[in-house]
Amino acid sequence: MLLIFIAVVDPPQRGERRLIKRAQGGDVGAFEQLLEANGAAMRRLAYSMLGDEATMDDVLQTAYVRAFRALPKFDGRSSFGTWLHRIVANAAVDELRRIARRGEVDLEALEGRAAASSPDIGDASDTRMDLANALAGLPADLRIVVLMVDAEGYSYDEVAEVVGIPPGTVASRLSRARAALRPVLDARSEAA
């Protein structure tokens, strides 16, 4: 019975470790399999942070190149997915900083995305647009935390590992982000 339990639980971890070893040896196909296994989560994270598909694709390309180059240094202390999340999050933050320096925050595109993704019309759509604008106005360090916890459902410890900060700092940043977003949501609920 124990042998069956080990066979059911362990192979995915061993399979990932084997892919990592192969990728570290230069096997691009193995690296592509690792990316494919984590691709949906990486796309959600990058899109949530950036709000634009073209920018998301550029950032993911950059992050994946960085990950491939850094792969020989990957030591397995965290899962590959957590390690890749950190690289993608850092690449997205870098891009947000570049955008902010150039003064190119495209709130209209963000509003359009929020409206297009809303299945409801009227107040719900307006609320999404207001929230998208408020999120776009948050500093990148607050935005990533609130998106990872509230939108993606990560725990404080998982966010701490990905972002590279203590869990207490995650809690602090999340509190500040929620406080900044609360007036937008309160104003919408008062108007209803």
What does this structure look like?
The protein is an all-alpha fold and 192 residues long. The protein has a domain at 10-104: Orthogonal Bundle (Rna Polymerase Sigma Factor, Chain: A), CATH 1.10.1740. It is 82% helix and 0% strand. The chain is built from 10 helices and no strands. Helix 3 packs across helix 4 (53-70), helix 6 runs antiparallel to helix 7 and helix 8 (140-151) packs across helix 10 (167-191). The chain is elongated. The termini are far apart. One of its GO terms (biological process) is DNA-templated transcription initiation.
Taking all residues together, what is the mean pLDDT? Answer: 79
Distance between the termini: 58 Å
Structural class determined from secondary elements: mainly alpha
| H-E string | HHHHHHHHHH
The total of beta strands comes to 0
Helix content: over 70%
Inertia-based shape: elongated
CATH topology (fold) name of the domain at 10-104:
Rna Polymerase Sigma Factor, Chain: A
List the main descriptive attributes of the protein structure presented here.
192 residues; Rna Polymerase Sigma Factor, Chain: A; 0% strand; elongated
Summary of the model, kept short:
With 192 residues, the protein is mostly helical. 82% of the residues lie in helices and 0% in strands.
How are the SSEs ordered, and which strands pair?
Elements: H1 2-9, H2 11-24, H3 28-50, H4 53-70, H5 80-102, H6 107-117, H7 123-137, H8 140-151, H9 156-163, H10 167-191
Helix pairs in contact: 2-3, 3-4, 3-5, 4-5, 5-9, 6-7, 7-10, 8-10, 9-10
